[in-house]
Design goal:
The chain is α/β, with parallel strands linked by helices. It is about 30% helix and about 15% strand. It has 15 helices and 19 strands. The strands form three sheets. A ten-stranded mixed sheet has the order 10-19-18-17-16-15-14-11-12-13, with helices on both faces. Strands 5-4-3-6-7-8-9 form a seven-stranded parallel sheet, with helices on one face. It has a two-stranded antiparallel ribbon with strand order 1-2.
Length: about 525
Amino acid sequence: MPETSVQGRRPSTMLRVWGWIAPGNPSPVRGTGRPQTVPLPIAARQGGLGHNRPKLGYRNHRVLTRAETRYHSLMSVPADAPILTTAAMRAAEAACAGSGTSLAELMDRAGAAVADIAWRMAAGGPVLILCGPGNNGGDGYVAARLLAERGAEVRVAAFAEPATDLARAARARWGGPVEALTLETAPAPLVVDALFGVGLTRPVSGDLAAILWRFAGRRVLAVDVPSGVDGDGLHDWAPPLPADVTLALGALKPAHMLLPAAPHCGRVLLAPIGIAADRMMRSAPKPIVAMPGATSHKFNRGMVLIRSGPMPGAARLTAAAALRSGAGYVVLSGAADAPLEAIIAEDGDCYDERLRDARVGAVVVGPGYPAAPALDRDVAAARDAGKPLVIDAAAIASALPRLRALGGTLPAILTPHEGEFAKAFPGLEGSKIDRAKAAAADAGAVVIYKGADTVVAAPDGRVVAAWPGSPWLATAGTGDVLAGACGAMLARGGDAFDAAVSAVGWHIARARAIGPGLVADDLLKD
């Protein structure tokens, strides 16, 4: 890696990184391998690595405290960033090497990025780098060398001798002493976990786990993933040393986005190191509210028809959400009254007539509507009308056979929570991302697999993972609100997957703005 990436300048002036290094980077450099200069603090517009701190100017650098980087209270990931599985990451690295960038250069870039973040987190204090036998350990040796060149007080403790050519070369270039990682290893204010990364095939346990537990309470920077986390999110392994900050290399990994691993990663930063990452899977983009144009009117902004069931309160929430999230015209069919005067409430006998209205851009069926023959009839009528659909709750199981028969020709969004998903798509295996992709392909519809780690999947394999959401959404009625937002986004026309992603982003942003004490009705207020 060119030395320009880790010059020994004051950390309060300038930092070189590759592309995204934190949420808020306005001009990422994707897949070029060229360093980009950004002022510190990193992503100051979004609080950087700190939390509930005063606004910082680019020249007003302040050392981060442990309270500001504690993993269980600060969880975030870069927006709209690529996600790669372990196998896909290895393939991308091989492709990069085949195009002329050696794996040694990739390791130098990775180590330089680790050094940059460790330099800032340590703020002049001692650093202990824990190195494993593989290439993750090699990244640690590179970071140790570069930190030492900057004048940092850095120690290296190795769990085992380097087992790859790259790691051996990196250790040789480090040149300093290497301690054995034992129960007697003295801690440091900052511990860099470069033990295993995504290459681990079993959980960390036994003596090594006992050693790592001794570092609890220190600030921890993990390289790629905390050691003991399954990078692909397939297993519920718990790392013995959770991270305050995790630096993802090249791309995010499923573990950064999925429970139960994601909270152990703390705040996730991304250092693109020159790898051209496939963007079929990515983190959620920043939510953007589409402004009406000069020629907009209530019908071309999207007309949404919501079918009310026996529990009308849920459909009322859905209707209000559709209007609040941007629909121009909302009809609540089968309800005696509407939650807002601007919403048209009408007798259920008008449902079939409304379905024939060419102006209706989306139909929402399911909120507050338990399984019953009436639900089956209303779902079938909506499908036969050829209208784009948002299907929620019990309506999902009713709609699936009809959607499969259409083979993905009708735009549709399904919004199951965990229980509804298991009932509609039994027997699926793999990570939550794997299961969501399989369900979307099976249904021929976009699937919003709800939860704290919401996953949006399209039949063609596109995936957006939204982590972290808001824990305050874990209350009755918020799913009905999401269904209404999906209806509003879908009614505008365009791609159902993009509509679902926009709705999820709107939903989470509203919840974060409200915070503690949220109830579903609060999402619909000014």
